[in-house]
Automatic annotation (TrEMBL):
Gene Ontology molecular function: DNA binding
Species this chain originates from: Neobacillus rhizophilus
Membrane-crossing segments per the record: none
Domain HTH luxR-type: 149-214
Top-rank taxon: Bacteria
Name of one Pfam family that matches: Response_reg
SMART domains according to UniProt: HTH_LUXR, REC
4-aspartylphosphate, modified sites: 56
One cellular component (GO) term of this entry: cytoplasm
Gene3D superfamilies in alphabetical order: 3.40.50.2300
Key word Ribosomal protein present: no
PROSITE patterns recorded: HTH_LUXR_1, HTH_LUXR_2, RESPONSE_REGULATORY
Matching PANTHER family: TRANSCRIPTIONAL REGULATORY PROTEIN NARL-RELATED (PTHR43214:SF24), TWO-COMPONENT RESPONSE REGULATOR (PTHR43214)
The protein's name: Response regulator transcription factor
């Protein structure tokens, strides 16, 4: 069993300690550090080598977004889950663009939080349904549509744009194949090409970049 070496970064001591107590009760989790700001989280990464981080956004000294950027640059294999009270779409976009694997609200039930941490540790990604809907709305907004001129710089084909739009809507490869009358193998090939052209590594980053650049 692979142990989850978890670092918790939050400026509120009550939240840090409460999460530590609850999560440390699970046999698969080892709490390796508690940080009260982003700068301290970076120091603890250096000292204790966590493989997963619960990262708050709004912290003094250094916020969670800035810390995520630095940590992902220095230790790209560390999984980062943004844990915050904010639901603004721009925070989701910022954190996922920088490589965070998930985004959860502090109001989440402890059992769901635990399940989410384990999912991320195993290589999954996580985004609450309500936030996913907000992302889709943002992607389809008039402001985003006005950025259509950026398409040419990424040289996406018409079919790749269709696949990218399906990815942004959260569709699986199977559903994309059914919608576009393609085989799943062909869909995978299109997705690989999209990742390469957009210089992203997963579906979340592709959807975020599509929103930011007005590609769909």
């Amino acid at each position: 069993m692979s142990v989850i070496r978890l670092l918790i970064a939050d400026d509120q001591e009550l939240i840090r300690e409460s999460l530590s107590i609850v999560l440390d009760m699970d046999d698969e989790i080892e709490i390796v550090g508690l940080a009260e700001n982003g700068a301290e989280a970076i120091e603890l990464c250096e000292q204790h080598k966590p493989n997963t981080i619960l990262m708050d956004i709004n912290m003094p000294v250094m916020d969670g977004i800035s810390a995520t950027k630095i940590i992902k640059q220095r230790w790209p294999d560390i999984k980062i889950i943004i844990l915050t009270t904010f639901q603004e779409v721009n925070h989701v976009i910022d954190s996922l663009t920088l490589g965070a694997e998930g985004y959860l609200l502090k109001a989440i039930h402890p059992k769901d939080l635990l399940a989410g941490i384990k999912l991320i540790h195993k290589g999954g990604t996580l985004l609450p349904q309500d936030l996913a809907k907000l992302l889709v709305q943002q992607i389809n907004s008039p402001e985003t549509q006005s950025l259509q001129g950026n398409k040419n710089q990424y040289d996406l084909t018409e079919r790749e744009e269709e696949v990218l739009k399906c990815i942004a809507q959260g569709l699986s490869n199977k559903l994309i194949a059914e919608r576009l009358f393609l085989s799943e193998g062909t869909v995978k090939n299109y997705i690989s090409s999209i990742y390469h052209k957009l210089d992203v590594k997963d579906r979340f980053q592709a959807a975020v970049k599509a929103q930011q650049e007005g590609l769909i």
